[in-house]
Amino acid sequence: MTDHHAEALRWDGQSLFLLDQRRLPAEERWLPIPDLETAIKAIQDLVVRGAPAIGITAAYAAVLAAREHGEHAVAWMKDMARLAEARPTAVNLRWAVQRMIAVREEGGDLDALEAEARSIHARDVAANRAMARLGSSLILPGSGVLTHCNTGSLATGGVGTALGVIVRAWREERLTSVYADETRPWLQGSRLTAWEFHREGVPCSVIVEAAAASLMREGRIHWVITGADRITANGDVANKIGTYSLAVLARAHNVGFMVVAPSSTLDPDSPSGDEVPIETRDSGEIWRTAGLTEPLSGIDAWNPVFDITPGELLSAIVTERGVLRPPFTESAIRAAAGR
Ligand code: MRU
Fold it and tell me: Taking the CB of the first residue and of the last residue of the chain, which one, N or C, has fewer CB atoms within 10 A?
């Protein structure tokens, strides 16, 4: 099976480069990331986004920071604390930074840090492949699927999480139709997911989020398939705003709900979604989607970019270690996290 997937980032042994996702699909522009400050800003500004891709970027950024600081471990540790906070919801960021810190605490030098960053990257590529195989096997031939946000190679190190499952299921001739939410306000669906499906040769219809209920009512969807930014000990899922609405709709229409996430996205130390910090972004993102440069006087906007889907609304969590079915227990989540 040939992959035609895009790349979110490149590391050439010296430098990190990020494909600027703010400009896609209109323009494919690679940005050099020479230092930690530029990496933190790129993560915050969504040059790179998607939980696993953010984690991999952070790992390489830790190498850049170690180069900047030489032997000054205290300054490097302070930088690691700031890096881990660049975006609060995606736990892969904290996970990757902790792994880099562990290497340094064991006396690892610059070469050891780079080897760890490459290993985090390679591990995500392998996890993506395993999840694609496992997730696709759950889908019966003749199915229609709906996905949300962007979970492909732009959001990961490899073929993606949910999008990797869908591409594989399409090639295995299990799917009759693929739908993607446009994913307001940043339009990860209509800009990035549509572009990735186009590159992969998978026909896809983009819908506004509000069309999902009608699509399910007409019986055209058998699985909703999403990624995750964090999965807590009880199976609650933090993911792109609108995931919760889809899970409620799926339950109401007897549609399966599959969450696809590598073990680096599992957070068994957080008991439930109530403990997950939800990132709220600048309301300008909402106004710009409406074609406005600034809000109308006296009009406010609320822009939380993630929500919590209770684990009880899921049919399956697919990780590279296997498929979990509800009810999700802390011990099962911990085992899947490799702890
Ligand atoms: O704000 P984003 O674009 O970083 O949000 C991304 C998502 O919500 C994805 O669904 C999630 O990171 C899983 S991607 C493999």
Answer: N
